[in-house]
Give the backbone structure.
Amino acid sequence: MVEALKKNPAWKGRKGPVVLLIMDGVGYGQYKEGDAVADSKMFNLEAVKAKSPHTKLKAHGKAVGLPSDEDMGNSEVGHNAMGCGRVFNQGAALVSASIETGAMFQGQAWKEIISNVLSKPESALHFIGLFSDGNVHSHLDHLKAMILKAKADGAKKVRIHALFDGRDVGETSALEYLDPFEAFLEEQNSGGFDARIASGGGRMWITMDRYGANWPQVERGWKTHVLGQGRQFKSAREAVETYRKEIPGIIDQDLKEFVVVDAVDGGPSPIGTIEDGDSVALFNFRGDRALEITAAFEEEAFDKFDRVRLPKVCYAGMMEYDGDTRVPKRYLVSPPSIDKTLGEYLAATGVRTLAISETQKYGHVTYFFNGNRTGKFDEKLEDYVEIRSDVVPFEQRPWMKCAEIADHVLKAIASGNYDLIRLNFPNGDMVGHTGVYQAVVCSMEAMDIQIGRIARAVEKAGGVMLITSDHGNGDDMYEHDKKNGAVSLKPDGSPKPKTAHSLNPVPCIVYDPDCKGEYPNAAGEGALNEGLGISSVAAACIQLLGYIPPEDYDKSVLKL
């Protein structure tokens, strides 16, 4: 338990609440071409910015706990940083360190999945996960290291279930990962060791749903990986090439499911169904898109779809995906131990809070913001509201649920029931991932209307609004040549879409119409502290509420 925050005697107070508005996936683009955010007519945001102090914050790499500044930020680590006010080493760094030191392979979970497959000669070790080096959900180097160790430990049969990316990496880069990996497996397949890719598909078509938004997606993955049901191919490469020919323009994240088969007596037979006695490791380290397939493997009373059969396997996740509910039961690497979060401090201080978003980012303003913690710190002081997302392609409904979120926020501001309201508009990220430029512009302009409504409500209530983002995305919608910055083109001459997050900085705007001189509040740049990361948001929120931030919190953007 943390102690209550100390009041700042110099703070003169505000009548209304502090509103932390997170524009998910909205940054300042490096290139004019492809910056759909800058290309959008965001009159309300620009009007607020024009009369407020503002700066840019780092939201990627080391600023959010990732291994290097070449690593793009993401919503999970971004909300962790904003919610805990400090930078913790995150998934990729933790897993890499665990492999390098050998700690993963000395742990009980690894020993159990290996001993299980060694107990029966016919048992297989299955790896399921995102097949790229995007370092957001997974990294192929981690998978390779585990395969090498499994071979060294005596495992004979390994099967990989590959979820193609095209989201955190190039949208049609699957073969760039697949071909070298197949060569790697070929090198290992000697001395009775047999490792092969058994099934797969695109991450947005099978297996990797989140927040219960699309269980049929997970069911397709179950049928593909476990039951071996789906279109059959001789190899993963044949599957990718076939789908690309049959569905012009399809990108990797949407590739249909495939099952690799061998010709045997009686017809083709899947090479890697998951059977009783096998071991299964989900090598994704990020939790949001790992929880649902984990539930399908671990829950006895499972009612989201008909599993047909539940194989008795030894299952492990790369990390603990939910610390409160202890999911999964077995995991290879411990997550960062995040304590003393903003939410915990506010609850201890008696601050009334509201957290709200739609389904796609609801877990981010609650679970991730609270340091990977499910549930509330104080039921009486906290309200969490989820607006159910539409289950449609985001480019077809780019405005998403921003109006409904704003409707609720306006009522909350007027009610006087909350001291801090935090909300997330997912538009820039979720629509940005589609690669559809015009849809992002539409999403930004729809969100801007709602920002205007909230800004007016904040001013009327005598409150403060801090606008920021967790990472960039919609600001970088085209692939660019890394050497000269030129837009990369498709064979037809059109720009090659980029669906991954950007490495760009994000906005930080402090809109305080009733500022009473406690800190410099001059419009423009220079009035806020510069060169900081998004972890500085937590201390700023505490200051705007009239309290003194904890000593170990990262420096605030406010010169207070």
Summary: DSSP finds 16 helices and 18 strands in the chain. The longest strand covers residues 194-202.
